[in-house]
């Protein structure tokens, strides 16, 4: 770009940017969009340097017509018709509970195949969140027995789940 063109564009910006912005704000009521309209209008003036040689009244009319047409084009665009701003976040999709329900049913069915002793220590440890000492105290059995029942009960549970088509790991 030549020096004289740069100077003309700076002068154009200085003379018309604020006026165009106020004009665009009255049309769009959005600061960012008004600024975009001004930038695009001045860009089009830069792309058509012959416009810069017009009389001031004709240049002003051309700039305001371009700005108005940009706003109208935006209003007519599909983006404007189908998109809208909101202060609320979109709904977050809820997790599909089907998978969890089926897993719970499968584990419950497999748990039924265990002995009552194994089922009880697994329930207290994994569903109750209890440690071996509290399980031993509640069931009035030694801690080693609790550990043994947990070990063999989990092995039997894994085997029962594999028989039902659940793969290990």
Automatic annotation (TrEMBL):
- One Pfam family recorded for the sequence: Sigma70_r4
Every copy of the RNA polymerase sigma-70 region domain together lies at 15-79, 110-158
The keyword Transcription regulation appears for this protein: yes
What domain of life does the native source organism fall in? Answer: Bacteria
Q: Which UniProt keywords apply?
A: DNA-binding, Sigma factor, Transcription, Transcription regulation
Question: NCBIfam families, per this entry?
Answer: PRK09645.1, sigma70-ECF
From the Swiss-Prot or TrEMBL record, give the protein name: RNA polymerase sigma factor
- Species of the source: Arthrobacter stackebrandtii
């Amino acid at each position: 770009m030549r020096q004289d063109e740069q100077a003309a564009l700076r002068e154009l910006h200085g003379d018309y940017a604020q006026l165009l912005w106020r004009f665009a704000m009255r049309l769009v009521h959005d600061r960012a969009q008004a600024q975009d309209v001004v930038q695009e209008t001045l860009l089009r003036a830069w792309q058509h340097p012959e416009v810069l040689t017009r009389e001031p009244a004709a240049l002003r009319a051309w700039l305001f017509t371009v700005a108005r047409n940009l706003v109208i084009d935006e209003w007519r665009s599909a983006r404007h018709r189908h998109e809208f701003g909101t202060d609320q976040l979109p709904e977050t999709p809820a997790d599909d509970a089907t998978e969890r329900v089926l897993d719970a049913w499968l584990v419950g069915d497999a748990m039924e195949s265990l002995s009552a002793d194994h089922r009880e220590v697994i329930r207290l440890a994994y569903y109750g969140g209890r440690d071996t000492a509290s399980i031993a105290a509640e069931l009035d059995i030694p801690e080693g027995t609790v550990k043994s029942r947990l070990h063999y009960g989990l092995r039997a549970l894994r085997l029962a789940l594999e028989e039902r088509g659940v793969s290990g790991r």
